[in-house]
Amino acid sequence: MKAERMGQVRGNQDRRGRNKNRDAVVFLGGGRITGALLAGLGLAGYTKPIVVHDRNPGKLRRLRRELGITVEPDLQRAVNRAHVLIIAVRPDSVRALLEKLGNEQFGAVRPVTIVSLAAGIPLANLRRWLKAPVQWARAMPSPVARGGRGLTALAFDRNFLAAAQKEVRRFFSKVGVVLEIPENKFDAFTVTYSSSHGYHAVAALANAAEQFGLDRKTALIAASHAFADGIVAWREGKFSLDELLHEAATPGGISAANLAAMDRSGYQRAVLMGLRAGIDRARKNATR
Length: 288
Ligand SMILES: NC(=O)c1ccc[n+]([C@@H]2O[C@H](COP(=O)([O-])OP(=O)(O)OC[C@H]3O[C@@H](n4cnc5c(N)ncnc54)[C@H](OP(=O)(O)O)[C@@H]3O)[C@@H](O)[C@H]2O)c1
Description:
Rossmann fold; ProC C-terminal domain-like fold; 2 domains; 14% strand
């Protein structure tokens, strides 16, 4: 049986020794981040095979209907298609999924590469939970990938082959900038790089503006331009952040008074506390 299977695999190999049947990037989990990445990949004209597996048939139907994605409700058949496997279930579901892969599904076929999107779960846990000789990477994208302007942090395990690293980088670069960081910086990156910061800050500024008489629509326009226009100006790279701050907040002027009052009220401390709470939450994922 084993020899038969091996013979079959050899017969299906392409010139680079890869199994031709395992041609797809397979997402395990078809929820929020998968939907956003798939939309971004579609926008970028990505045409290579993608398969999504999820335990929730309604989500699979929606992905097929809205994005034309190939879906596979059977885990084994999904894994059989995987050249690259992407773990996109919530952190508290990762261990059970990997143990299921290891015990029941994963022994028969072996995707070369597995990328985990799970926040807070270290490579050491992933290795321990899946008893199979695979190369692991972690990726931290955001739903902003939907519009092709995302940012993805990557960390590769020690045994990760250079050619496969290139492939993973290329894949995520379709939906935005790719940044490689050491794994021990992943939690700090995760809590810093969340599009929720932008939405939260816009909401807080607009709410405050409404208290001083702006209608909701005008408050949201003013608040979102305050953030977005400033960021675009900084990204153009002509001036440093300090120079831009100095230009926008003339000493003794209205903006300077505004920012000083925010700082006195604990603005920086509130941000610090927010990140600390996020990091504590991420670390809990590691103890599962
Ligand atoms: N959302 C983000 O902004 C974001 C950004 C970066 C990284 N991530 C990471 O990406 C992962 C997914 O997050 P998400 O927000 O996309 O979660 P989500 O919307 O809840 O999607 C996860 C999907 O996986 C399914 N699932 C859970 N266990 C499964 C299993 N054993 N077999 C098959 N399907 C299973 C869930 O089904 P049910 O609905 O039945 O539970 C759900 O449809 C998380 O680990 C998160 O840390 C998320």
